[in-house]
Recover the amino acids of this structure.
């Protein structure tokens, strides 16, 4: 049977203990990959290797990458998924929230891919998938910090795509719309109704709908895709 060629490939996923990340870990594992993941609070249920670490620390992420390679073998891919929200209208916002969101959602991705990319370049193959958001494309009331970080990821990824291309190392972005996870659970019902009215498919997305795209972009089957921003948002932004 035809399948994505992920058998035995080593992949690292950040925020792999819950939500979208946990679904990515479970699916990659089902498809035969050896999956390591980073969690912050408590481990999840799937994956070959769970490592507690904080993506805001470059030192910790460097140690994570070394440990993954020691225990599972050379990395083929990384899915930078960990992210947070700290919402408020900009005029009421606190600089600490701005710092924390940028530190986690943007610098955290730098810290995740910085120790990985030189290794992929040297080996002449590999792929990196960054989880951004439709909010980075459209903005969103109450999410100035989050929108800034996610928009930053898009430019960051396109640059890595250009720098990695000559080494056959691909970088792509997934920009999910509103997906049913803890992150959405924090949004008030009234706001959720408003959001739904802007989604042509008329529903929120499911974590597995992001996971399938991530698995494809990770895999060699996506060998001619780099620098792409894949929208998975039910048609909210085209
Ligand atoms: P969840 O809140 O369910 O999961 C977030 C994950 O990130 C958790 O595993 C969390 O670990 C981890 N994490 C957060 N901060 C850190 C940190 N400093 N170090 C290590 N891990 C950390 O959210 P989702 O699954 O919904 O979000 C996953 C990604 O998808 C995020 O980047 C988010 O911005 C993006 N996204 C989500 C959308 C949605 O509607 N749900 C829409 C668009 C994009 P722990 O819980 O242990 O702290």
């Amino acid at each position: 049977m035809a399948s994505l060629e992920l058998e035995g490939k080593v992949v690292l996923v950040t925020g792999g203990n819950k939500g979208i990340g946990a679904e990515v870990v479970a699916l990659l594992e089902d498809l035969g990959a050896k999956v390591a993941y980073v969690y912050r609070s408590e481990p999840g249920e799937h994956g070959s290797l769970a490592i507690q670490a904080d993506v805001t620390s470059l030192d910790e992420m460097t140690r994570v990458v070394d440990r993954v390679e020691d225990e599972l073998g050379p990395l083929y891919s990384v899915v930078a998924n960990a992210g947070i929200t700290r919402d408020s209208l900009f005029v009421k916002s606190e600089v600490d929230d701005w710092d924390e969101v940028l530190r986690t959602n943007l610098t955290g991705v730098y810290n995740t891919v910085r120790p990985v990319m030189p290794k992929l370049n040297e080996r002449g193959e590999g792929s990196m998938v960054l989880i951004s958001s439709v909010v980075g494309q459209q903005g969103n009331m109450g999410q100035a910090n989050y929108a800034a970080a996610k928009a930053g990821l898009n430019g960051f990824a396109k640059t890595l795509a250009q720098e990695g291309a000559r080494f056959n190392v691909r970088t792509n972005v997934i920009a999910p719309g509103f997906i049913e996870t803890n992150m959405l659970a924090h949004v008030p019902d009234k706001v959720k109704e408003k959001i739904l009215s802007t989604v042509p498919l008329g529903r929120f997305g499911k974590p597995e709908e992001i996971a399938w795209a991530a698995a494809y972009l990770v895999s060699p089957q996506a060998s001619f895709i780099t620098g792409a921003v894949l929208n998975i948002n039910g048609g909210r932004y085209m």
